[in-house]
Design goal:
The protein is of the alpha/beta class. The protein folds into 3 domains: 5-81, no CATH class; 89-260, Spore Coat Polysaccharide Biosynthesis Protein SpsA, Chain A; 278-354, no CATH class. The chain contains 11 helices and 13 strands. It has helices at 31-38, 44-85, 107-120, 133-151, 171-174, 198-208, 231-234, 250-260, 308-318, 321-327, 335-354; strands spanning 5-9, 13-18, 21-26, 90-91, 96-102, 124-130, 155-159, 179-180, 183-186, 191-193, 212-213, 227-230, 277-279. The protein has a 6-stranded mixed β-sheet with strand order 7-6-5-9-12-11. A 3-stranded antiparallel β-sheet has the order 1-2-3, with helices on one face. Strands 4-8 form a two-stranded parallel ribbon. The chain starts with a strand and ends with a helix. 30% of the residues are buried.
């Protein structure tokens, strides 16, 4: 008996025999791959039949892969919950905790972030979860010891678990801080805080009867990455199990976490999502718009979100004794952090002296 359809697989390829025709293709072909496979079949009806057969097969394969990914996602979500439950909490009397996390790429920001946050927020603490605290300490030992002496326990660094294939930016939202204060502000580690943030967010929650101060981005199910909330309303975290944590961004994940807690979600506007400081987009865009970035929109100002007011605030604290004492501990061979600081200094100087608006 002649088999009309046969299928076999290797590690990388799928082999299909239809009648006497042998078709070999990658295990994850795209639509264009399938079109390329069938284009040579001379009879249109047979060509369309083969195309439909391959598309159906790939749809089934994708469903199976997605099911496996969802199952893996559920497993890691359960692990995240267990890891959070095992964190030892320290109750603190301060009203606000700045909490964020950093992998090795962002260690230069992790070492300078606390200076700015605490300079403008007296009744606050800073806690930063690190991918490898021992390595971080080996680089910035002198500054960390200076922080311990000057600030006691107001600045806290520690290891935090970064889960394989989970977006690094998401770790700040799915890991529970060790310090507990009344409110927690979870932000970007590359935004240097240049003002007191508490009253704005507290009043936003109170006046608009919200559970948290953050906002949904327009036309997309994302919150922003700047999140102010009561500690007890954020933790324990609540991650819905019907999402694939491996495939969504940090802001989309945060949105689903807040929806899962049945909190009210409001849309973002220019006035209700302040950055509160100097957003140093060092790894995502150059400080100045150039022919290699947005030449069609090139203008005579930096691409980073810094205006003259922010630049002046930065320079006022940047050249204070408080910051200069800490920066004096930066060694000559710490090239990356020296470059970042130099970029910030140059951009702020440029805006103050050249930007007219």
């Amino acid at each position: 008996m002649i088999k009309l359809f046969q299928k076999s697989e290797t590690e990388k390829y799928i082999i299909i025999k239809i009648l006497f025709i042998k078709i070999t293709f990658k295990k994850k072909p795209t639509k264009s791959d399938i079109d390329a496979i069938v284009w040579w079949i001379p009879i249109k009806s047979l060509r369309n039949a083969v195309r439909n057969l391959l598309n159906t097969y790939m749809d089934l394969l994708n469903i199976n892969n997605n099911s496996a990914n969802i199952n893996n996602s559920i497993d890691i979500i359960e692990q995240i919950m267990k890891d959070n439950a095992n964190i030892h909490i320290q109750e603190k009397h301060e009203k606000l905790l700045f909490y964020t996390c950093a992998n090795e790429k962002y260690y230069p920001f992790a070492i300078i972030y606390p200076i700015f946050a605490l300079a403008f927020n007296n009744d606050a603490l800073v806690e930063i979860g690190l991918q490898d605290y021992d390595y971080f300490y080996s680089i910035y030992k002198d500054i960390i010891e200076y922080y311990k002496k000057k600030y006691n326990d107001k600045i806290y660094y520690h290891n935090v678990k970064f889960y394989d294939n989970v977006m690094p930016n998401s770790i700040r939202f799915i890991s529970k801080p060790h310090y507990k204060t009344k409110y927690v502000y979870i932000g970007d580690i590359d935004i240097l805080i240049l003002e007191d943030i508490f009253n704005f967010h507290y009043n936003n929650i109170k006046h608009n009867k919200l559970d948290f101060s953050n906002h949904k981005r327009i036309n997309i199910n994302y919150l922003t990455g700047l999140h102010f909330i009561e500690y007890d309303k954020m933790y324990p975290i609540s991650i819905p199990k019907n999402i694939n944590i491996y495939e969504i961004s940090d802001e989309e994940l945060l949105y689903h976490m807040m929806v899962n807690k049945k909190y009210k979600i409001t849309n973002i506007t220019n006035t209700n999502r302040p950055i509160h400081g100097y957003h140093v987009s060092y790894f995502s865009r150059p400080p100045l718009q150039t022919i290699t970035t947005r030449d069609m929109l090139a203008k005579n100002y930096p691409a980073w979100t810094v205006d003259k007011e922010v630049a002046k605030k930065y320079e006022a604290i940047r050249f204070s004794k408080e910051v200069k004492d800490i920066y004096s501990l930066i060694k000559e061979d710490m090239i990356e952090i020296r470059k970042i600081i130099q970029y910030m200094d140059l951009v702020s100087y440029y805006i103050i002296n050249n930007h007219t608006s």
